[in-house]
Amino acid sequence: MKSSPYLYIAKFLSILHPPLPKTPRASKTLVNVLESAFQKHLDEVHPSPASVSPKDSTTVPDPSHQVSHDLHRHFDSLLAHPLLATQHAVTAKSRTDTATAVIRLEQVGLSGVRGFKLVQECCRLYLRGLRKHERVPAGGQLAPRLLNWYTQMKPSDKFLFLTNHTTLSYVVPVMYKDGLESEVWNFLRTLYESSFGELKSVSELASSSEGTRSKVRSVEAEDYLISLMIRQFSMKDSLSDAAHLFIQAAQYQEARSIPFSLVLSSNCLASAILRVRHNHQLSLDVYRGVLRYFTDSHWRSSWNSACLELYDPLSPSTTSLLKQIRIPKLTERFSQHPTEQQNVYTALLDAAELSEKQDSIAATREFLNFTSSLFPDRTQPKAMDPAPSKHSKKDTTVETISDFGFARA
């Protein structure tokens, strides 16, 4: 029997495009066949970690993390497939630091804590580009991608991220630069919600439970994150917002009976106020509210509190600072950072001026002598009379600011 041309064509098409299964059982059989074929091909191209012998490995990973390292290499090989390439808004031809940071973050699959080092590097590169005033196109910002990375984390990984000071110090500035300040507040809320019960004393650290240690880390992370937020506020000349943030955080910790003071936050806020001195523009209630939470649990907090009393809007005072400079070996505690040195120098001169206005000659002399001993290179004694008369004063002790030429800058 002779076949018609139509049957030949139909047979040829059925070879190219097999007909769909007509029954559920046939459909299931076809799916199983295709799945087996795909799995076989996948295993050949990307062998699983278990099938690779140790002697075939090109690197020697940390033995304590052998399984996780193998698994990560397996995932990386899968994610490198062209079909899984991420489409980004910035073209690969861009050579700016900001574009490079975004592309690098998108091209590498991040999973929880594995991405910490890469995130730090990308943020550093991105911030360097912003300092060079590079133009960031719409959709080319780094912060939304960081937020997506953070959102996909497990709760345990989020806690590790929020307690990692190095990573936070890079991420927070990027979030503020790209206008996602509200998400940083969500970071702080997450830390506030990670409660592990009341901690009564720091001594519990030595023999505490895992929950208590996590609580300690959470409280320390709160302090560090708040200090980063205060620094961003001060960079935008928003000292009022920074002060309100500090007061609210202190009140919240006080309500939770947490014995830890906000040492880093208070130090950061004090430095911001000392830089502008009398021009802080804080109301009396807010200023006194800040001073209320500067505790004596740390010498730095006590020093900052004493310095800030110089700039009280209503009644500036040098009493506390005078007590501070009488502490033995106080100068050994001061940081050698130029900004910190300048803050100390300026506060001491302001204290001397205030004492002089209040007609406290002894306090003025004490402040000036302390300043000249601490900063000998910044003081220029006025030339003394080479031939003083017998009736002239022999006492050459510095008593007023006019006796020395002090450089403010």
Automatic annotation (TrEMBL):
Q: Where is this region: Disordered?
A: 44-67, 378-397
What name goes with this protein?
Answer: Uncharacterized protein
* Amino acid composition bias (Polar residues), ranges on this chain: 50-61
Provenance organism: Exophiala mesophila (Black yeast-like fungus)
